[in-house]
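Backbones bend. Shown next:

***
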Amino acid sequence: KWAEKNGDALLKLAADGFELGNHGYLHRDHATLSYDANRAEILVTERLLKASLEGLGEAASRAVAPLFAPPSGSMGGAMFDAADALGYTVVMWTRDTVDWRDHDPDIIARRAVDGIAAGDLILMHPTDATVAALPRILDAVTAAGLTVAPVSEVIGSKAA
């Protein structure tokens, strides 16, 4: 639903070369969903992303990656089966900023980078506090001698 409500931001992200993964449409508990319900959640979001980016041509094709991050990290067999059947790689974060609940940029930045290591995937949401924390996060990643990369590159998936 976020993508549906934020089409301009979605277009800018895709045009700027960001990778867009799939997080489902309604932020449902994928461990409790049937195969068909998991498939539907993934497909409605995939179709929405592709339709929203239609005018970008090749940039849209590069932007939409076959990556699925289940909401709340809730996973189950039917979810894995549906994702696999649709050609998706299921990805999970290794660092959670809990920015959906805590809106303090200092806390968000600290959770993102304390003890950061190569290969870490940081879960962040498009909140004002996260945007405020992002420069500190990026500076800390650089100071640690690391680089920011698309998820598919970090995990070495076929989405790259």
